[in-house]
C-alpha cells in the first residue's frame, strides 16, 4: 500500500472513531454553555501544558456546540493557541449539527461531482428543515459544487415555510454567507413558487435590493404585469427610489442576456409609472446602449411609455 493511501486510511479511521464517540455522547452532551466554551478557549493559553491539553480535549468533546466560538477565535496572537484551535477545528468542523452526523457522512462520502440527487436533498429538507442550510454550507466548503448547493436550497424552498427559513437565517452566525448563496440562485419559468418563497424571505429580512432583483426575475420568467404592493411600499422612500434605479442601470450592464435586460427595463418602467415618475423611465432609457429585441417587451414597454406620455420614446422603441 502506498504511503498516501496509508495516511488517508489512518485519517479516515480517526474521523470515524471521533464521530462514533460523538454519536454515543449525543444523548448526554457535555456542558456546552457559552461561558464554559469561552473559558476553555481561554484555557488553551494556560501556563500548564496539562491544562492546555485538557481544554483541547474538552472542546473536541463538545464538538458541534463549540463550532462558532472555535471558528471565530482562529486569529489568536499566541501561535500555540492558534495551532490548538486549528487542531480542534479539524476534529469538529465537519460536523454540521447534532443528530445529523450519519446523514452528513453519507452525503459527503457518496456525493459525485457531476450529479445532484434532488430527491435526496428534498428528503433531508423535510427531515431537518432550515437547519439543512448548515449541511449545504458544509458541502460547499468541502466540495465547492454549485449544482449541489443550489439544488439543496431549492429543495428547502419547496418543503419549508419562508418565515421559518428567514428566522433561521436572521439568527445564524453564517447569515452573510447564506444570503450570498441565496442570491446566486437562478430560477426558470417552472419554478415561480420557489422564486416567490425566496422573495418573501428577502422581504422578511428587509433586503430591499434583493427583493427587487428576484421580483424582476419572476416578472421576466412569467411575463407578469403586476408588482406586489409590498414592493411598492419600498418606493415611499425617495432615497431608495434613486438608489434602486441607479442599481438597475448598473445591473443592466452586467446582465447575461439581452432578454434579461429587456424585462428588467419594463419591470422598472412599470414601477416608474406607478410612482408617476416619467422622468425616471426617460433617464433609464437614455442609458440603454442596445436595441430591445423581445417583441413582448417592445409592445408592453411601448404601452407604458404612451400611458405616461413619453411618445417619442415609445416611437423609438417600436421602430427599433
Account of the protein in words:
It is built from 19 helices and no strands. With 320 residues, the protein is an all-alpha fold. About 7% of the residues have low confidence. It is elongated and about 80 Å long.
List the helices and strands and how they pair.
Elements: H1 3-25, H2 34-43, H3 49-62, H4 67-72, H5 79-92, H6 101-110, H7 118-128, H8 132-143, H9 146-159, H10 162-170, H11 175-183, H12 192-204, H13 208-222, H14 229-234, H15 238-254, H16 258-274, H17 278-286, H18 295-307, H19 311-319
Secondary-structure-derived class: mainly alpha
Radius of gyration: 26 Å
Q: Calculate the terminal CA-CA distance, rounded to whole Å.
A: 70 Å
Per DSSP, the total helix count is 19
Unreliable residue runs: 6-27
Descriptive keywords:
320 residues; mainly alpha; 19 helices
Would you summarize the structure shown here?
The protein has 320 residues and is mainly alpha-helical. It has 19 helices and no strands. The relative contact order is 0.05.
